Amino acid sequence: MITNGRSRTEEPTVATSFSELTHDVIELAELQAQLFSLDVKETTKTTRTSLLLAVVAGCVLLGTIPVALIALAELLIEQLDWSQAAAYGVATLVGLLISVGIGAVAWSRFRTGIVTMHRSREELSRNVAWIKSSLRNRVQTNPSGPD
């Protein structure tokens, strides 16, 4: 009899069946670990851009946006005769909107990159279902218990 590429000459026992199942589970675990490793590498590649965008967004926000917002506030004061408080308040809201927009783009790209881990989750679910099915089938085919 041949099972999973291994030939068997004697009648299966509980110990033999359990040994074969253990071997299969170990092989599945190794393959699952390899798939997870590949998914982590792929996720790192796809999220690298979003992390870089987030860093750039932070640098721009911390470096040039305050200067531009001060200039906007001063423009509102000079051209529209607004009070300093109102002009600086509007400039602050404009700055917040810009940073939320950049952050939303970074978050969107980050979430897109995380989706690649879906492949590992699906394969793990299938492997667990196979193990359960295999255990159930082996129990049903050998209900007499240990030999």
Helix/strand/pairing category: mainly alpha
Instruction: Give the number of DSSP strands.
Output: 2
| Count of the separate structural domains | 1
Give the terminus-to-terminus CA distance.
Answer: 19 Å
Order of helices and strands: EEHHHH
Whole-angstrom Rg = 30 Å
Summarize the main sheet.
Answer: 2 strands, antiparallel
Strand content: under 5%
List the total number of helices.
Answer: 4
State the helicity in percent bands: over 70%
Written overview of the protein:
With 147 residues, the protein is an all-alpha fold. It has one domain. It has four helices and two strands, in the order E-E-H-H-H-H. The protein has a two-stranded antiparallel ribbon. Helix 2 runs antiparallel to helix 3 (84-114). The protein is rod-shaped, with a radius of gyration of 30 Å. The two termini are 19 Å apart. The model has no long low-confidence stretch (mean pLDDT 80).
Helices and strands in order, then pairings?
Layout: E1 2-3, E2 6-7, H1 14-63, H2 65-80, H3 84-114, H4 118-141
Can I get a quick summary?
By secondary structure, this protein is mainly α. It has helices spanning 14-63, 65-80, 84-114, 118-141; strands at residues 2-3, 6-7.
